[in-house]
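Q&A log
Question type: sequence-to-structure
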Amino acid sequence: MDSKLSQANLAEKIIELSNLVSKQIGDSGNADKFTQIIEAAKKSDFDTSLSLLIDDVSVLLNADPNESEVSLNLLFVILINLPALSSNSLSSKAIKQISSSSAGPLAILKSLNNFYNLQQIPLVKYEIFDQIATTCIAENLIESVLQPHFVNLLELSSEWELSLEQKQGFFEKLSSAAFDAGLLEDALDIERLLLTKIYSAGSPKSIELASKIIIRLLNQPGYFQFDNLINLEAVHSLSKINNGNPSIEYSILSIFVSGNSSKWVSFLAENSSESISNLNIDIELASYKIQMISLAAIGAQELGKNISYDKVSSLIFENKDSITDLDIELIIIDTIKYGLINAKIDQLNRTFIVTRSIHREFGTNEWKLLSSHLKDWSKSLNDLIPVIQNAKLVAQLSNSSAPAIVEISN
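Response status: OK
Response body:
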């Protein structure tokens, strides 16, 4: 960018900053160095003077907070008024020095944030943000500082004019950090960006990440939105990866999208325990999740109807003879807890009624089922009309001496 300050003004500000740094250091042994800095500034040798000055600029963060902010903002103003080439290299050096300060993460992050807001060169803005991310990762500040920016990563990366390779590295860094911080949904959103915007579907990177995501989500107790996952092109490419056959990860995902407990049991029987264990799948958890999914599917089919414990036992449990009423009630409660259904349990009659259930897929059969439910609902409303009319008539005649006439409809 073009300089907004004249060379004379730049020299004055560098000398002013040099005096502030020298004062903060308070070591007369550095007098020769600061004399060299000032002389270079007077000769308009800004690269030399600033390079020497930036070596000690981190001490400014240890000053009084107000003085520190004023001094560092002076440095930032100087840097953004330099020619682009000098500004880029010296800004990089300043970012590293500020980040190495012993003043603590909050002071560092505040200074970097101020520099980011003043900076206009796209790649320097990216470098500042990347250092902010690095500091947050090291100090466990991902959720409080970085998370609000995750939704804008694609826009930010375009604003910074990043290459595809730079985007890839940055997104991979943040997805890993989000996952380590326990921000599963954010990590998944960033990985979805990698699969849809960065990696080519079917490429080694895409295959590796798609497979890893499937396993990770299978091992997450509260994750059930597998239909969203299987519709990604990168994930769908796993369906023909082995000479036209699906990968084992895709086969498992397909069961969770459209299969049931019996298909899962058959799959486990047909595949060696070694091949499945090598995937690091929590088999016990996955089995329980598919049982809950199967229970929700039964609920969707029998919405509003009494469902017997025996039906649940026969449809979702492998060893139904050893299943107790408590086992069935616990899985109903867990299925409610994870938001897959709403239901009421009748322990006395060993039944339950599902009033709401998720649909893993919504195709022709689901539309037919919805149509059936709507017809039942419409019929129920029609049956209520005579009751409502009679109630209105009774209300109208309650203040009258005339005898009430109640219509009875078959």
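Response note: The CA atoms of residues 150 and 186 lie 7 Å apart.
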